[in-house]
Amino acid sequence: MVTSLERRIADSLDSRASRSILRRVDQPPSAEDGAPLIDFSSNDYLSLSKNETLRERFLEKLSRTELILGSGGSRLLDGNTTAHFALETRLKDFFNGPAALLFNSGFDANVALFSTLPQPGDIIIIDSLIHASVWDGCRASRAREQVWTFEHNSMDSLERRLKEALSEYEGVRAGETTVFVGIETLYSMDGDFAPLREIVDLVEKTLPRGNGFIIADEAHATGLYGPRGRGLVASHGLEDRIPLRLHTFGKALASNGAVVICSPLIRSYLCNYARSLIFTTALSHSNVISIGCSFDLLEDGTSEKLSKQVRSLCMTFVKKMVQITAGVPMALLSIPRTACLVVQLPDHPASPIIPLLTTEPRPLASYLQKKGYLARPITWPTVPKGQDRVRICIHAGNTEMEVIGLVDAIAQWATDRLGRQSSASNARL
């Protein structure tokens, strides 16, 4: 017998399938001959997951430790081992912060920050394209009735929101009500950068009583930017003005987990109120060792060399994409204006994330996979309606020939598509 719950669930899935937005966890795609596809999709920006030095160092440290498997419990019980505490101390010093607190993932950390820190009556203002984990934290917050958004990376929109808070709330004017501003430093779908200095200057100018509190998610920037990969906040010299930062280890650092850099007071508060920390088993000992090995490569300068390789490959990709899209309708294929800044402005940082904007993301991704390149279609509800794309990620381990081959495949797809459209138009005539 089919229950009412099963029927409603099936109807929801059928609805998504009919709109081509049904998500699946399937066997990873491979080339027609069974070979792995060339990776232009994952967040392994520095290609550390395949780095032999990192692998050897990790295995060597595993062989010398008595504690490998598990962690023993939550951080507040038996999961607070010497290894966990030592890693936090190391991360505190590396990121030039007063204190550090480990989390099992960036998702858990964002949920903790936004559900726990805002107090009743406070206001949360977040970028409209911020990660889903921040939204989940806001929904669980005691300030959930006052969650506002500002237009993505728009200083005018953020200023209007800040002035709206000042106008409507005496507590904001008096400095008693905190205004939290949530941003990512590098956005995971658009691949563009937050105007960090402008945001800090605006918040401090508009809220001179010090009740503006910026939370910066550095998930996609950690390891790639700043001295020794400390992130974009460090790159801009803003560590003292954005003291609350989130860094994750599951992207460029080829591990998993996250750390919140904060004050000792906030660290203590999170330990007492953050449910995603209190009620979950701590990172395993092998995971802690893995994170430490990745930071060895940041501290010895390896990551900076790999970051330069990423920048060089990004320049190649963007330059060639500008050439092949010159005569192509924007609806069929284009790259954002922000992606082109890396070739227009010599000092502009290169983003490893470059979206191919297209009304046909699934056919394009399928074509590229058949040609041997792993690229994924991204559609609503992951991105706003009308902003479908194929998300390209460049890695230090990609070669220049692979990047050129990818662009050639994209160009061939666009040419084929335009040819079919022209043939269909002529047939109608």
UniProtKB/TrEMBL annotation:
Pfam families registered for this protein in UniProt: Aminotran_1_2
Domain Aminotransferase class I/classII large, residue spans: 37-410
Segments crossing the lipid bilayer: none
Gene3D superfamilies: Aspartate Aminotransferase, domain 1, Type I PLP-dependent aspartate aminotransferase-like (Major domain)
Coiled-coil residues: none
Similarity annotation: Belongs to the class-II pyridoxal-phosphate-dependent aminotransferase family. BioF subfamily.
PANTHER family: 8-AMINO-7-OXONONANOATE SYNTHASE, CLASS II AMINOTRANSFERASE/8-AMINO-7-OXONONANOATE SYNTHASE
Protein name (record): Aminotransferase class I/classII large domain-containing protein
Organism name: Tulasnella calospora MUT 4182
